[in-house]
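Action item from last week, closing it out:
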Amino acid sequence: MRAVLFDFGGVILSSPFDAFAAYERRAGLPEGLIRTINSTDPDTNAWARFERSELTLDGFVEAFEAEAAALGHVVDGSEVIGCLAGELRPAMVEAVARCHEHFATALVTNNVVSGRESWSSGGSFAEVLDHFDVVVESSVVGCRKPERRFYELTLERLGVEARDAVLLDDLGINLKPAREMGMTTIKVVDPGEAIAELEDVLGVPLR
């Protein structure tokens, strides 16, 4: 194994799904509504277009709220964007740092322009970014997971073949194409279990 690819939200950062659920409870919305909206027309919906920078923030809010309205619900798109802020998982940050000592590392994230500002401004994520050789953001490259081109671009930038890389992501839909390309994949549900699985794959201690 020569390279380790890490998703951000739900892997290094706490999952936004918990924040989505909390917002749904506050707003009196059906449980799982936001994920339902995001999984409807997943390649062309407001969320997908926003992550490829095809929509501005205002454009996303308008389009997302329209998608919610089509399902009979009133949703505040700005509140939904606010759910993307999460907390770093210290154990996973440590694992990334240790991986970087032995392997090429890449951060591979579906993100939005507004979510990148804290990265470049020297905020709390800056020290994490130092542990990556390559950072691939959907909002910058114009494609997103699970599009095959996203993975191909990452491997090209790392200079490795798929068979020499392992990907950690919290969504099975994002892992499937990587696995089909020949990558080893780890689905992150419990961070500790994922780190243990990664240690087995790499043969080095990460804690």
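Closing note: The chain has two domains: 3-14+87-202, 16-82.
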